[in-house]
Design a protein that fits this description.
Layout lengths: L12 E4 L2 E4 L10 H5 L2 E9 L2 E2 L2 H14 L8 H14 L6 E8 L18 E8 L9 E5 L7 H4 L9 H13 L3 E5 L5 E4 L3 E6 L2 E4 L9 H12 L4 E3 L4 H5 L3 E6 L3 E8 L2 E2 L7 H16 L2 E2 L2
Parallel strand pairs: 7-8, 7-14, 11-12
Antiparallel strand pairs: 1-2, 1-6, 3-4, 3-5, 4-16, 5-6, 8-9, 10-11, 10-13, 13-14, 14-15
The structure holds pyridoxal-5'-phosphate.
Length: 299
């Protein structure tokens, strides 16, 4: 799955600390913490018919990640929401939009990693793009990466930070193997997630997903778990091995950028329901209904 350039995004207006600028002129300082050390947190949000799905959950996760990194200043939910609304208005965007929010520790007065050399306040970047769910309607193929996800005592995935190198290395492996994405294992060999999404399997009518130990506290993941509970579909959060995925009846991935997508192959093995199984189809339908119904009006 290779994203392509959309002409609709040619003249995007980007918001950097409240300044609205054309994408070709947008830039941040070489002294910014994101450039210097990837010292930043981020969120991906999706706009459906003028509403952002799970906006407060995303802003809560952004704030809690920034708190965990001891950012000296963090904009309020209201301030961030106002900047998102200004950006959407400047781009006349109402639907089919993905918004990448980045909050960095800000500009440093000299080069270096020490947070004490930051005294300018944080940098907030709102990048909104016309972007339908990136996987389309087809199922995807995965390979298992040799790159492991960190446990919480190395780099806790509960901090949704901008150091994406682990994921990028896994994605390179997937690209070179001709697969769409890569399964990443935790340090015990259990499945953590993919390089970009959470993984679910269905076996004997029960939906299962790895615990949030070596993967972020996914908002789409939590939504799918809630949908299962509300629809009395059995759901378990537990350690799952690759074998359990290979032999599953259905496998699917979740994430804001791609919503829900079924997995057709893992490591060359075809999953039992390659065309998409009934539980995945039911949950996908429930998810679509929810995104059409819920969300915070911003545009
Ligand atoms: C590593 C990783 N896994 C999974 C996800 C999907 O999470 P969400 O459903 O909150 O978009 C993300 C999204 O930010 C991510 O960065």
């Amino acid at each position: 799955m290779l994203q392509t350039f959309s002409e609709k995004n040619k003249d995007l207006i980007v918001n950097i600390n409240g300044k609205l600028v054309h994408r070709d002129r947008a830039g941040i300082s070489p002294f910014d913490s994101a450039v210097q050390g990837g010292d930043a947190v981020w969120e991906g949000l999706r706009l459906y018919q003028r509403r952002i799905f799970k906006l407060s959950e995303h802003l809560d996760r952004l704030r809690s990640s920034a708190v965990a990194l001891a950012f000296a200043q963090i904009p309020t939910h209201a301030e961030i929401t106002r900047e998102i609304a200004r950006t959407l208005e400047a781009n006349a965007m109402t639907d089919g939009v993905h918004i990448r929010l980045t909050l960095t520790r800000g500009v440093k007065y000299t080069s270096g990693m020490d947070p004490r050399i930051n005294n300018s306040g944080p940098t907030l970047i709102v990048l909104a793009e016309h972007k339908p769910p990136v996987y389309g309607n087809k199922g995807i193929s995965l390979i298992t990466s040799a790159i492991r996800r960190f446990p919480p005592d190395c780099m806790d995935p509960k901090v949704h930070h901008c150091n994406l190198i682990q994921s990028i290395l896994a994605k390179i492996q997937a690209n070179q193997a001709g697969a769409d994405d890569a399964v990443m294992l935790d340090m015990h060999g259990f499945v953590a997630e993919t390089n970009a999404t959470h993984l679910f399997l269905v076996a004997g009518g029960t939906v299962m997903t790895p615990r949030c130990v070596a993967c972020p506290e996914g908002i789409t993941r939590a939504t799918v778990i809630d949908l299962c509970r509300a629809s009395t579909i059995p759901i378990q959060e537990k350690d799952l091995s690759l074998t359990e995925f290979y032999r599953a009846d259905e496998v699917f991935c979740t994430g804001t950028m791609g919503e829900m997508v079924r997995v057709e192959q893992i490591d060359g093995r075809t999953i039992a329901w390659p065309g998409g199984g009934p539980v995945t189809a039911r949950l996908t339908g429930l998810f679509r209904e929810l995104t059409a119904r819920e969300g915070t009006l911003v545009a």
